[in-house]
Fold each of these.
Amino acid sequence: MSSKPIRWGIIGPGRIAELLVPDFVHVPNAKVVAVASRTKQRAEDFATRHAIAKSYGSYEAIIADPDVDVLYVATPNRQHRKIAIEAVRGGKALLVEKSFATTVAGAREMIDAARANGRFVMEAMWTRFQPIIVKMRELIASGAIGEVRAVQADLGVDRPYNPNDRLFDPHQGGGAMLDLGVYLVSFAQMVLGTPRAVVAQGSLWPTGVDAESGLLLDHGEGRRSVLFMTLRNATPGQARVFGSKGFIDVLPRFHHPTKMVLHRTGAAPEPISLPPLGGGYAHELIEVTECLLAGRTESAIMPLADTLAVQTIMNDALEQLGVVPTEEP
């Protein structure tokens, strides 16, 4: 394994990037060296706040920087496809915020470009790297709750309707599915695998993006996931995994949890607490950094096949709701 430090760049210095960058203090062999925005002043302000050496007023400039090894892409999801393809062709590895893309075709293009250019790409699904979720998967694999039969999860926030906000704007990849549903679908797919059928019902905002929906995923042999997402009201944000010999409660909010309770049939509940490093983003940053140091082009924990499967499930559901997302040309 190489000991060369991995040099990171940030594309899209918005709210999530503000939260993520401080977690680099917990990531060995990694350093943020550059940031880019479509607005030079915004990039400069971000660089000043986080003591980053270089700032760029275009994405093309940071992609062309030979001193950047990997880019964290935190722009609106509708922009991911275009940026990712240009970046991997420019020799950069990528950590791409969820949702990975807005269409299945876009996600497939990104993955094909990464493989054709031999570049590491991973979706920034931080949930899979949280210590509680890692422990949950270990318990499931050990047979702690027997055969897994079902997943039940919800995620909702109260967002007053504003057609100019990105959450309600189809041109910015808005809607509950791509913003919240990606966590639910990824969790269900992680536990039970890719479903063979998807049924979705919900409602739309006047702008045409989805406001809320319920999903029933058929994983075969009677196994199922029941998922609910909404931008209309807050929900607990809890997930449950049911097995033939018990169940696991992942306590709110399940997409970045610190606690769960293991319920074995005939035994007292077993609370388990495992706090994350920093704000919780460090774990996915460590994964990418270690993969790059080891020369890998894909993560075994968040493989691209899973990302494509999740994108396909979401877009299938959106089509049933009457929503047809598009990518930035």
Note: The chain has two domains: 6-125+281-298, 131-275.
Amino acid sequence: MTPEPVPAELSARGLSLAYEGRTVVDGLDLEIPAGAVTAIVGPNACGKSTLLRGLSRLMAPAAGSVLLDGADIQSLPTKQVAQRLGLLPQTPTAPDGITVADLVSRGRYPHQGWFRRWTADDDEAVAEAMTATGIGDLAERPVDELSGGQRQRVWIAMALAQRTEILLLDEPTTFLDLSHQLDVLDLLLDLNAARGTTVVMVLHDLNLAARYAGHLVAMRAGAVAAAGEPSAVVTAELVREVFGVESMVAADPVTGTPLVVPMGRHHTA
């Protein structure tokens, strides 16, 4: 009997990330639960996207380290990292004139090599990703002719086609209407359930994060303010501390997960 694959482990130790000498993430320690869905939340400019760039090796640490299965990710070969860890950045850019099918196919590039050419498995991965994201009818369309929501789904398909053990997504619901937001988040849950893929996503919507993630990381000013199950993390005190908003926290009537009801200045006692 073939043993079940062991999910890859990703963590940060004393991680500091900086732009031109300005520290954005400062001495952060973080454990990403393997095989789970993690959402990173927090106010604008708190370091969420920067943290994701550091975890994916797009940014080299100013201090500390990111560990992939216990090894410093900076020391690993680029192709090895790309085969195990996929990233969908916040504002990806496609080459001019590239078609949807060609862009999604690029998700298979890390699996190619001198002695490993395109195979039926690659075709299957691309077709499955396009079907899952509902873009099959767009296959021959140039990406730059699509709407923002359609383009976002194409980029997600490319990340899915990579078939990595870890998938990092920075605001995957950007440009999507509510229906497509839920479609994408349901898709990520399905991927996690079917393959055990470790999913880490930055989300602005705290309620969607609490509904879809099994593990929540709340950030403030480049540090982790709280981390754990949404039911333990999402409290009125945390929302006040992290977001500066007075709120009530109730049970979501659909899922039972925490539901934040912000008050606003005109509705406080």
Note: The first helix runs from residue 48 to 55.
Amino acid sequence: MNTKIASFLEERRPETPCLVLDLDVVAGNYQALAEAMPDSRIFYAVKANPAPQILSLLAAMGSCFDTASVVEIRDALAAGATADRISFGNTIKKRVDIATAYALGIRLFAFDSEAELRKIAEVAPGARVFCRILTSGEGAEWPLSRKFGCEPCMARDLLAMAPGLGLDAYGVSFHVGSQQRDTGAWDKALESAAGIFRDLAAQGIELKMVNLGGGFPTKYLKEVPTPEAYGRAIDASLRQHFGNRLPETIIEPGRGMVGNAGVIQSEVVLISNKSANDNTRWVYLDIGKFGGLAETMDEAIRYPITTIHDGDAAEPAILAGPTCDSADVLYEKNAYPMPVSLAIGDKVLIHGTGAYTTTYSAVAFNGFAPLQAYYI
């Protein structure tokens, strides 16, 4: 936690749970990615954290935006982005939402099936389209499922159909999995993309763009490579598979843009044991899966947690949230070391929580209010 956030918490003493996010860190992350990958346009993944303060900051810095819904499109426009800096990156869209986006000036759409391609052709004539292909997600801490993307051979055939439907076959996209710590993870997907480019060029269709997706990590408990390391690895793969005919590229950072900018302050509500002979403590916080920490599902994301008692003797504890739902347990399979001196009422800081926390806490489940956030 930096001094700016620490000072805010000390001076304001906000009620918990709350997220405090340093906008200067977001600006630094944007600059670092822009310098590491100067030939790629940055499309911030709005779903990571759609706060108006973040969108306005990034829009002013020149960022483009990857959106998943009409609401996110309107938010990006309200923040100062022009329509040509926004993509509708969700491959699952209602026809009416495609039409609305088109009416708002959006001309860049993702798809991964023939049915979606035909919807776009019907209500967004002349739009640029890019097809998402499947990747393994190996090496990612939050792998993505087969819900999105199609096999490369299908993508080739669908992109070949696009011109006949009145659309601009613009390119290929993929996502190597969120919190991807392997800088080489993009290589195989780029090899597949290059194959699609060559096959379509042989048919007289010149694709122009590769969407490298997101996956750029933030630091939790493990070290992560630098933006420069990702930039070097991706550039090497592009040159290996595309030679001198390099495509346009875009990246869609979300977690890597805002994750390390935020800290959640929580309070210990209860510490208990399940029997007289059970030495395992249960530490209940005033935030859990339903309050913004949904990415602890299957213990995929393991957040750094600090307390005022750090340095004291520690023992593994099971961490859980406050709701009356048995699924609201954060870390049980791999219990979390917590100070033995931790007491009810103590504050706990959960670091690296600037991404995918406020959005996951949008509903007041069990009557617990959505996560309060401060952008400083």
Note: The first strand starts at residue 18 and ends at 21.
Amino acid sequence: METLTAKDLTLGYGEEIIIDDLNIAIPKGEITVFIGGNGCGKSTLLRSMARLLKPKEGGVVLHGEDIAKMPTKEVARKLAILPQSPVSPEGLTVYDLVKQGRHPYKSMFKKWSQEDDQAVNEALKSTNMIDLQERSVDSLSGGQRQRAWIAMTLAQKTDTILLDEPTTYLDMTHQIEILDLLFELNERNGSTVVMVLHDLNLACRYAHHIVAIKDKKVYAQGKPEEVISCNMVHDVFQMKCDVTYDPMFGTPMCIPHGRGRCLIKNAVAESYKTATAH
């Protein structure tokens, strides 16, 4: 069952076409990851699926409805998006940022309610931000700041969350922290999570469904073990690699070729020199 689909979708800026006649279905209740080379249209596609970019052709369907014809607040009650590197006003506290997630439920006649309080507190608790709620967002570390923004999207109480490169500029520890959080949200709440990632091995580890984009279209999609291969990596990223399996998770693991210090080859070379010296 799909929660979000793109039908005959063509996207671009001005005369430049970024995505051309693309069809895609996002599985409900799963984690989907978009992969592809720089500039291939991953972020553009994500923005279009959140109705932040008007298609040139085709359309996006959310829960069976044409997203272009839905009221803005109705879309925001069903789908939340976290753009790449969001910026908050200087001095804004974590609590006040997370409160912004309740905006789709506000109107002239509906004041802040106990339901809103509960949604904000649940979002803070889910992201382990309760103790930091009075801190200003700009005083937080990168990982904490990203958790604060994710808490804001959770306060929207949507069943679908889109994230554009949520681990960008984070060190390895914070990358895993954020991806573990999203994985737990999916496991616990059945949330549909769609995100753009650059790290193929992390994409394989956390995704149920991977979509590889090349030449303005979907090159391949499916389970990580169905999509990730030496040929796919070569065709999509113009890179030679070996594909093996992660010994801890059993998911595909890409080992890129390239220059650099290779201990195995050096050890073999030294062994060969020793053997032939006698």
Note: The first helix runs from residue 42 to 49.
